[in-house]
Amino acid sequence: MFLWLKFFHIFFIVAWFAGLFYLPRIFVNLAMAEGEGEYARLLLMAQKLYRFMQPWCVGALVCGLAMPLFAIGFAPWVHAKIAVALLLLGYHVWCSRLLARFAARRNTHSHRWYRVFNELPVFLLLAAVYFALFKPFGN
Fold this sequence. Notes:
- InterPro entries: HemJ-like (IPR005265).
- By secondary structure, this protein is mostly helical.
- The protein has helices at residues 2-32, 36-72, 76-103, 111-117, 120-134.
- It is 85% helix and 0% strand.
């Protein structure tokens, strides 16, 4: 059972991160869009991608939170990894807020800001992988 849980957790993480990496790249282009047609097309792409990301987010979080219950327990490194997962969930929700602002034509950030914003999940992914592989703070 635990290996299947881990299998699905990794699958959901990969799928979710594909969206977390690409959605802010669409935001970069939305912030630079000049024509109405281009803006509408990019907005539709972003909205569809966000809806596509939702089940992967839920699956990653459910499987990730279930694993300690089935096998690994709540070692200190697990708490750190859960904290990273909560930060990623916050980033995901932040993306939804930014998307809503684009839809309402109330974006206030530049394309440069979105380029930096796009890098945040990279660092959170590095932290999560570090905690999962090296299991610091004892096992």
